[in-house]
Amino acid sequence: MLSKFKLLTQEIKLTAILALPISLGQLGHVLTGVADYTMLGHTKPIDMAGATFATSVFFPIMILGLGFGLGLTPLAANSNGAKDGEKLKSLFRTSVKINLLLGLGMFGFLYWLSGHLEWFNQPKEVLEACRDYFLLISLSIIPIMIFQSLKTFLDGLKDTRTPMVISLLSNVLNVLLNYLLIFDHGSYGGMGIEGAGWATLISRVFMVVVFIGVYLWRKNLKPFIFASLNSILNFAHFKEIINIGIPISTYMFFEVTAFSAATFMMGWISEDHISAHQAALSLASISFVICMGVGNAGSIRTATYVGENNLDKIKGVAVSVVSISLLLSGLSAIVFLLFNENLPLIFVEAQEARILEYASVMLLYAALFQFSDGLQVIFQGLLQGIGDVKIPSLIAVASYWLIGLPMGYLLSFYTDVGYSGVWIGLTVGLTISAVLQILRYRYSFNKLLS
Fold first, then answer.
1. pLDDT tens digits along 324-334
2. Is the distance from CB of 427 to CB of 368 less than 8 angstroms?
């Protein structure tokens, strides 16, 4: 009994060491947006609503790209476990080119979409406030995609600290630039929401510049940079990358768009509701990306063992990942339950009584779905590690879009439940997704061992 406990604690330690930098690094992408509308919330509520809406449109596109980039991590981990250096170079070279092309394509789409934001049926004042901000954060998708290629490759090599440090430095820069550009500093009048957009763009370009510098500085990484400049038209292992990347990005896209759709529904009710929703959602997103980092760590460790043909060690990885997820979800739920009335004050001033009231209620529902949200995302990661990505993505899409969102819409607009119905629908969708992902993992794992 004691030896089993010791083995479990060892597995948890190995997973936690790998997961912590990944979680903090991914948290950086979320905190960039959070910093924007948090600081804007202390200037003008309409600017916060504008940044909230713009981020809700931009974020699913960004997640689509980031999710696609995650397809490189298990492939790199597998090749690293098999000691295949040439394949690692080919994977890196192809990933950089794909991500750059995707970044350019997504910016083109977002630029076109910027002329049609009225399609989302939001208040006119919100649309007018956010247009310049939306264009600036849209342009930042290009450095984001390059950064993701550099980051996920290092994650696959089990170097998760470097991306974390760079992400955190970028966030510090973003907050500093937000302070300098948003607010009125006497002789300088401040740029408001446009200043937040410039801060976001500059900080994301900074990430890429620093990351390229790290690759050129380290002897073991420099060959990969030079390899990416060779054979421009060579897309070796393209099919492998997209076979994993597309299902992952699809799953992540439809989950995030479900929450964005929920944001749009809140916008149909009032500006106060959309601001409150974003405050509660920002806090829930923090716990989500931390658990997603744990799931990614599970994916990396699992894929490495598959590459080494050490299948008997995979079960220990799964147990450690689930244990960490349950602990983190429990802590988040307790915080949301105990401080649901205080946490929204991070985002808005105390006089915004209605926003604070709505957000405090939404945080109670966020506390309810913490376990479901954490479990479904970590089992997604475990499934990625063993190469099962298509069916789990379909499960996620069906849970959010065929069950969660329709239920939320009907409860909010066709019953007396009101705005809480949106969050009830999200809770149900996440719970169904978690149960089905667990069942899928049991099936796929047993099939892998047979």
1. 999 999 999 99
2. yes
